[in-house]
């Protein structure tokens, strides 16, 4: 039996303050790379829960989503050179001050605030080909209401013996 193909569902937070965007610098097999706070949707969580969790883990800040920026699809390769498709849900929102005692996720070296020009100048270090596209869409004013996303509650487990 052949294995069923599935895209990797990811979330990303696009956070702007005073003309600068919050990025993470992370250690990858390709060296130090830049990205928005982002990561994979985990079993049992909603897209909104995932982006709040990933942002907290990668920036040590609480994230409050305000809008859906867009849904993006990109192809790439794993370190083992296997083709992979990413389906990214990018959210616009705000962060608070760093959370006391909250460490950055494993592999995250630091967070930084960068202008669109600085982000563009570092294009060779973008972890995702979607980083600049998300910044550009944000600057164009693209926003969709969070109500566009609906998460169905998981059904309750049947009582034992029924």
Automatic annotation (TrEMBL):
InterPro entries: NUDIX_hydrolase-like_dom_sf (IPR015797), NUDIX_hydrolase_dom (IPR000086), NudJ (IPR033713). Gene3D superfamilies: Nucleoside Triphosphate Pyrophosphohydrolase (3.90.79.10). PROSITE patterns: NUDIX (PS51462). Its cofactor is Mg(2+). Keywords: Hydrolase, Magnesium. Coiled coil: none annotated. Residues 6-136 form the Nudix hydrolase domain. Its EC number is 3.6.1.-. It is an enzyme of class 3 (hydrolase). GO terms for molecular function: nucleoside diphosphate phosphatase activity; ribonucleoside triphosphate phosphatase activity; thiamine diphosphate phosphatase activity. Transmembrane segments: none annotated. PANTHER family: NUDIX HYDROLASE 23, PHOSPHATASE NUDJ. Monomer. Belongs to the Nudix hydrolase family. NudJ subfamily. This is Phosphatase NudJ. The lineage of its organism: Bacteria, Pseudomonadati, Pseudomonadota, Betaproteobacteria, Burkholderiales.
